[in-house]
Automatic annotation (TrEMBL):
This is 7-carboxy-7-deazaguanine synthase. [4Fe-4S] cluster binds at residues 37, 41, 44. Catalyzes the complex heterocyclic radical-mediated conversion of 6-carboxy-5,6,7,8-tetrahydropterin (CPH4) to 7-carboxy-7-deazaguanine (CDG), a step common to the biosynthetic pathways of all 7-deazapurine-containing compounds. Keywords: 4Fe-4S, Iron, Iron-sulfur, Lyase, Magnesium, Metal-binding, Queuosine biosynthesis, S-adenosyl-L-methionine. Homodimer. It catalyses: 6-carboxy-5,6,7,8-tetrahydropterin + H(+) = 7-carboxy-7-carbaguanine + NH4(+). It comes from the Bacteria. Binds 1 [4Fe-4S] cluster. The cluster is coordinated with 3 cysteines and an exchangeable S-adenosyl-L-methionine. Mg(2+) binds at residue 46. Substrate binds at residues 18-20, 33, 76. Residues 24-218 form the Radical SAM core domain. Belongs to the radical SAM superfamily. 7-carboxy-7-deazaguanine synthase family. The gene is queE.
Amino acid sequence: MATAAPLQLRITEIFHSLQGESRSSGFPTVFVRLTGCPLRCSYCDTEYAFTGGEWWELPTILSEVEVYQPHYVCVTGGEPLSQKGVLPLLTALCDAGYRVSLETSGALDISQVDRRVSRIVDLKTPGSAESAKNNYANIDLLTANDQVKFVICDEADYLWSCEQLVKYTLTERCEVLFSPVHGRQDAAALAEWIIRDRLTVRFQLQLHKMLWGEQPGC
């Protein structure tokens, strides 16, 4: 009987840094960045992860993560869910005792992701040029362990995001993050709108960009 091929994933990079976004912002975290993404957002800052990468077997990935002895592990991309092998990877990371998060575009189904994982789901704004690909069925799957992120390009994006908060009662489902697009949306203006409108959302800046700019592996 033929032996099953070992599980492999195409990896762009694995690195140790500070989490720059989400509720665990500021915590030392190991990032596992998978290669490939079906979206082409106007503000994407990880285009280098669209192609290339190297094939890693699951035990090798786990061994590399263990080297850093992290408390937090973030699986990101690209779009991690575009590789089927990400599901057993996420479960294996949880089984190893890490606090695991998944950064996903929101275009692909999250229903099979291990529920121990904190799923950080983008709702793509019109300014992203990819809002038509939002998978709104994901919203009903969200729990208090998850987060929804809006990356906001301008005031029109902000108003659209506010409409989604109401339409899908998002703040009653999970934590909601509002983030300005670096270099396009004035951060102070976004903060003022949130305060003015008394939104119960978390304003966030990309800490890693403030510290190291847009270089890979940070």
